[in-house]
């Protein structure tokens, strides 16, 4: 088996917010020869524990508390396991642990590869993207960006009785709890978007790519080709793979309001959130939307 340590440039992270088409992108890439898909390892949820807890968005005097992580709050405390002053003692063992875990999956997926495999990791806990890219500086980064309002709308739909997300830890939210949940989800999107943007801007331009969900809906083949090119993978099968995963080709029973594949329609939040819910969402999203909107904000920063 080829060692990931010797081929780190064959490691690609899909960072951004969940509910942004990351599963769709991973499934397309998984159909390419030599790809080892790593779906939701949740490294960020273990390394980037949220503070305060989500309950704060329902009971705090501040309707939008400042969201942080233990990595931020405790980094300078010597007793904290991931304290900065002890980075040399934990960074390399953590790298080795992550490499070993991915290689174990590669051994099952490609027991006898003819060339170094391409590891494609869809990481939902993308708020630790800066740390993961520090650990793997030669890896590749895809920043998958979607309008935060559609992300919140999509997650809100997942917190309904009978939803696909219930077995994974979601719960049916009451009408009275919707506002608090909207504020929490908005804060998470804002934090993750800023964190991935920071990681993106610090990463070498030749090793990063911005993919917008809206563009992927319009031109999936072109987006897939761009990601494959970032990995050094080109082939005539790309149009076929993109077409086979088109939203419109999915069976009716596998998509819908309570399914993991829901609407794929940008701007649907306007139809699903009440006026008061939209106000609450924008209170939490305003600053991040200004930086990550589809005008002069993030587009200008990423093009520079």
Largest sheet data: 5 strands, parallel
Principal-axes geometry comes out as globular
Helix content bin: 40-55%
Low-confidence stretches: 294-304
**What topology, given as strand order, has the largest sheet?**
2-5-1-6-7
Run of helices and strands: EHEHEHEHHEHEHHEHHHHHH
Oligomer class = single chain
Alpha carbon gap, first and last residue: 39 Å
DSSP, total strands:
7
Q: What is the CATH H-level superfamily?
A: P-loop containing nucleotide triphosphate hydrolases
How many structural domains does the protein architecture include? 1
CATH architecture: 3-Layer(aba) Sandwich
Tell me, rounded to a whole number, the average pLDDT: 92
Task: Write up this protein.
With 304 residues, this protein is α/β, with parallel strands linked by helices. The protein has one domain (4-303): P-loop containing nucleotide triphosphate hydrolases (Rossmann fold, 3-Layer(aba) Sandwich), CATH 3.40.50. It is 46% helix and 10% strand. It has helices at residues 22-30, 43-47, 56-59, 70-73, 87-109, 129-135, 148-158, 178-202, 213-218, 220-230, 238-244, 269-272, 275-292, 298-303; strands at 11-16, 35-39, 50-51, 68-69, 118-122, 140-145, 208-212. The model is unreliable at 294-304 (pLDDT under 50).
